[in-house]
Design brief:
7-stranded antiparallel β-sheet, globular, binds fe (iii) ion, 291 residues, 1 helix, 4% helix
């Protein structure tokens, strides 16, 4: 049995609200100036959006977007007619691959609160066919190891429960709610890049018991640590723990295009403008969900 080594917290960054999309407000975690190069992760936004604000017609190529609703409801529609709703607790794991053009808009003018994580794809997967894995709340794996500990397993495994989501870039992603004084130890695969994003309440994280409240990103040490200990200090501690296997390839990002070379970025813009190589129909398409 390999030794169990607790990961520590090497960096804590408070996110401040910023404008994004069309009138939307987000707390940007990964992807902010202080939190780049957390390979394979490109962005994590905590969004809190009321219609008519939103994220109208835009493209993606070369990575995956993972939208997880905490409260409220989003509508989405893409340029091939795939459309639907993402409600409270629902998950949309979208692999854009060679190209998606879509619109993501709140369903109402109430609070629509959730997380969108951008996970990079290895060069071998960047031009794959787009793919959706869409789980309604009831199908999102969850485990409660004891009363007062509630874990949604969005990807990977936790306390013996495994998500059905297939991750091209190996990823572990759990949503954790803890009552006061409750403790967990979440296994983090060796050499995975890991971080915690806090949503509410306060808790002690890591071997040095780093205390944090909402909107903080806590970067985990990338030692050979095999787990992260957390103890709740409040009755409503709520956070996500996310970890992924680094891809270790060059990253050239221009907005919603993430490739390995500048030439591939030029190609992405050209394909998008001319409707080629996965963007067929993009130039003529506009979403109908905003109407
Ligand atoms: N400017 C810009 C450029 C490219 C994008 F893809 C986006 C975008 O769609 C989002 C960025 N944060 C998000 N959080 C939640 C949701 Cl549902 C969408 C987004 C965007 F805003
Ligand atoms: Fe998008």
């Amino acid at each position: 049995m390999a030794a169990r080594i607790a990961r520590s917290i090497t960096k804590s960054v408070l996110s401040r609200e910023q404008s994004e999309g069309d009138g939307a407000r987000v707390f940007r975690s990964i992807g902010s100036y202080a939190l780049r190069n957390l390979d394979p992760f490109l962005m994590l936004d905590e969004f809190d959006v009321r219609a008519p604000a939103g994220f109208p017609d835009h493209p993606h190529r070369g990575f995956e977007t993972v939208t997880y609703m905490l409260e409220g409801e989003f509508l989405h529609e893409d340029f091939k007619g795939h459309k639907g709703r993402i409600g409270p607790g629902d998950l949309q794991w979208m692999s854009a691959g060679r190209g998606i053009v879509h619109s993501e808009i709140p369903a109402n003018d109430k609070r629509n609160h959730g997380l969108q994580l951008w996970v990079n794809l290895a060069s071998k997967d960047k031009m794959a066919e787009p793919n959706y894995q869409e789980l309604p709340k009831e199908e999102v794996a969850h485990v409660s190891p004891e009363p007062g500990v509630d874990i949604k397993v969005i990807a990977g495994a936790s306390y013996g429960t495994t998500s059905p989501v297939v991750t091209r870039t190996p990823t572990m992603y759990i949503d954790v709610r803890l009552a006061k004084g409750k403790k967990i130890e979440q296994e983090i695969p060796e050499n995975y890049t890991g971080f915690i994003y806090t949503l509410a309440g306060s808790a002690k994280f890591g071997s040095q018991e780093h205390v944090s409240d909402a909107h903080h990103t806590l970067v985990l040490s990338n030692n050979l640590g095999t787990y992260i200990p957390v103890e709740s200090l409040s009755d409503d501690a709520h956070f996500v723990i996310i970890a992924g296997k680094p891809i270790n390839e060059p990253i050239v990002q221009h907005g919603p295009f993430v490739m390995n070379t500048q030439q591939e970025i030029y190609q992405a813009f050209s394909d998008y403008q001319h409707g080629r190589n996965g963007f067929e129909g993009a130039a003529e398409w506009t979403s109908s969900i905003r109407d």
